[in-house]
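Changelog excerpt: complex records now keep ligands as SMILES alongside chain sequences, and the structure block spans every component. Example after the change:
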Amino acid sequence: MEKFLKHGGVPTSEQKELADLNGNQKIDRFDWVALQKLLEGKIQQKDLPLLLGDVNGDKTVNTLDATLAEKMLAGSGEWNEVQKLQADTNANKRIDKHNINLIMNVAAEIITQPELPLEPGDFDDNDQIKSDDVIIVMKYLDPVNKPTSKEILYGDMNLNGKFDQPDLDQINKMLTKYTIEDPCMVPPTN
Ligand SMILES: [Ca+2]
Ligand SMILES: [Ca+2]
Ligand SMILES: [Ca+2]
Ligand SMILES: [Ca+2]
């Protein structure tokens, strides 16, 4: 499982089921993050499938989960590994403002839960941040092009509700992200 996640290739349906730790029918970056936690013994088989965005574990993603993720971000309260994983809706192994924003957007039905993890910056959703993504953001810097609410989620890096130069600068910085030697940042291939 680890091998094919790392090196790509087309998984069989059985492999896919085994490796799809968040049960969203695809092998994504989050599955890789969760697999590491499983191998480290920090989460158990019984915790699977993990429902991204569901911080309180009641099987729905709503504003209550966003409130809990805010607390987590503020460093208040005690959280277990499952809760931390479920709050990390962009699968970057950190809790940040995008996690809260993504949960709010699932609650508002702008995106659906299985669309998580969604990585801001990865506009074309191919688990890599490349020049293709930069080109899309550049397009929306021209006010003639109106983004949808969902597109804003992908490209509004500074969370001010619009596309602007800081968003482009941030995505440009992320172009080098996948070159670092962190296995989590080697995106698995679907
Ligand atoms: Ca998955
Ligand atoms: Ca919940
Ligand atoms: Ca991309
Ligand atoms: Ca912005």
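The chain has a mean pLDDT of 86. The longest helix spans residues 63-74.
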